[in-house]
Specification:
Helix content is about 35%, strand content about 25%. By secondary structure, it is α/β, with parallel strands linked by helices. Strands 1, 2, 3, 4, 5, 6, 13, 14 and 15 form a nine-stranded mixed sheet that branches. The protein has a four-stranded antiparallel sheet with strand order 9-11-7-12, with helices on one face. Strands 8-10 form a two-stranded antiparallel ribbon. Helix 1 crosses helix 3 and helix 8 runs antiparallel to helix 9. It starts with 11 loop residues before the first helix and ends with a helix.
Length: about 425
């Protein structure tokens, strides 16, 4: 697959400035970003993205779950488009780079192609997927999941946040709702750049990685019901303490992940007792579980182990424990040919690179599950920290990743 025109060089300083410009939308006191999905700050970032794409004469489209598509037309409109992008929403205590790096690198590639003055053979479609994080409305990767037909649009529109607001109600306040719907345009390939969100690249002194796939994920909602009672008069042996049941189940989840190590992951991210009173034994607790493993089979074993542990704890403590799976994303390999092209272009530019498996879910997972050739680039993350206001990456690593991504994207854009 030979490039049919000279390589297009991105403007690395412009990319870096752009990332930090968007980081001011929802900036937090500790240097991070709080730009929750379908919030006014999220819409502000999306509007700024649309304005920049419009300046490049790109066509703007939006689907019913709120994904934004900006398309630079190619010479042959019958050819499938090359899709590049990520997301702009963040966690409640998010960083500057998670998601935004992918959207703004895609935008930088579009700017560079536009400035080169040569129309690509096929269209370039830059996408900002909606609600990738799932921090306000679960599940994660909602926009890409609906787009790929893996999640029901009606079901997702009905999802409520902790305040009872639905996705549909929030989307009703989105100024982008007047843009036309994306037609069923075929996709040639999908590219995404993202921070690693882990320590491997930094530990090995490497700026970037070629992602070979994403591990399997299962999410659960758990309800534990006991009986509230006064903390003083009630003997320890007479209690049906949902709080202690939640604590014991949390430790059991940790052990299940350790038993399926070193790749197993188990996290209890939310624990909500009721009533939340200092001198009342909790009568019920709601908690969430996030489990991950590169092996679908191992993740199923973890599911069974968690259910078994919940049953034992319920019987021992006189509780009712309901563990309900709310989301499953299977292990998803990426396109081997595109991984090889990333390695090729990294070598050409003198950027060290290694193959790496993703521990986190990404929008590219759902696109790959559509049968679209898909690949991701990871950039080194300081101390492996993400979903945290202290999240940090190096400017030179962001530029290296975008350069390699741009080379691979341009190759697809200009081939027949």
């Amino acid at each position: 697959m030979a490039i049919q025109k000279p390589r297009i060089d991105i403007n690395g300083s412009r990319l870096w400035d752009s990332i930090h410009s968007y980081a001011r939308i929802g900036a937090t006191a500790k240097g991070g970003v709080k730009r929750m999905a379908f919030s006014q700050l999220d819409y502000q970032a999306r509007d700024q993205f649309i304005d920049e794409c419009t300046e490049l004469n790109m066509t703007i489209e939006r689907d019913k779950i709120g994904n934004i598509f900006a398309t630079m037309a190619g010479e042959d409109p019958t050819l499938p488009v090359v899709m590049v992008g990520s997301h702009l929403d963040t966690q409640p205590t998010g960083g500057k780079y998670d998601g935004a790096l992918g959207v703004l690198s895609a935008l930088e590639i579009a700017k560079s192609v536009y400035e080169a003055g040569q129309r690509p053979k096929r269209g370039l479609q830059v996408v900002a997927f909606a609600n990738e994080e799932g921090g306000r409305f679960a599940p994660a990767m909602m926009g890409s999941g609906v787009f790929a037909g893996k999640l029901s649009l009606d079901d997702m529109l009905a999802i409520k946040d902790i305040d009872g607001m639905t996705v549909a109600e929030e989307l009703g306040r989105d100024s982008t709702g007047d843009y036309p719907a994306r037609p069923n345009t075929a996709i040639d390939s999908m590219f995404e750049i993202h921070i690693e969100q882990g320590p491997i690249l930094e530990e090995e002194g490497l700026p970037i990685g070629a992602v070979t796939g994403v591990q399997a994920i299962r999410w659960y909602d758990v309800t534990i019901v006991g009986s509230e009672a006064h903390a003083g008069p009630t003997p320890m042996t007479s209690r049906k303490d949902a709080g202690l049941g939640a604590a014991e189940l949390s430790l059991a989840i940790e052990q299940v992940a350790l038993d399926h190590g070193p790749d197993g992951r188990g996290t209890v991210g939310v624990i909500v007792p009721s009533p939340a009173s200092r001198n009342v034994i909790p009568g019920s607790v709601y908690l969430t579980i996030d489990t991950r493993h590169p092996s679908d089979e191992a993740l199923l074993e973890m599911k069974q182990a968690i259910q078994d542990a919940a049953k034992v704890i319920a019987e021992k403590r006189g509780l009712e424990i309901d563990v309900t799976e709310i989301w499953h994303s299977p292990a998803t390999p990426f396109d081997e040919g595109l991984v090889q092209r990333l390695e090729h272009f990294a070598a050409e530019r003198g950027h060290p690179i290694r193959r790496i498996w993703s521990g986190a879910g990404h929008d590219s997972v759902y696109i790959a599950q559509m049968g679209v050739p898909t690949v991701m680039v990871f950039t080194q993350t300081k101390d492996g920290i993400s979903h945290n206001e202290s999240e940090s990456i190096k400017k030179e690593d962001a530029i290296a990743g975008c350069e390699v991504l741009a080379d691979a994207v341009v190759e697809r854009l200009f081939k027949g």
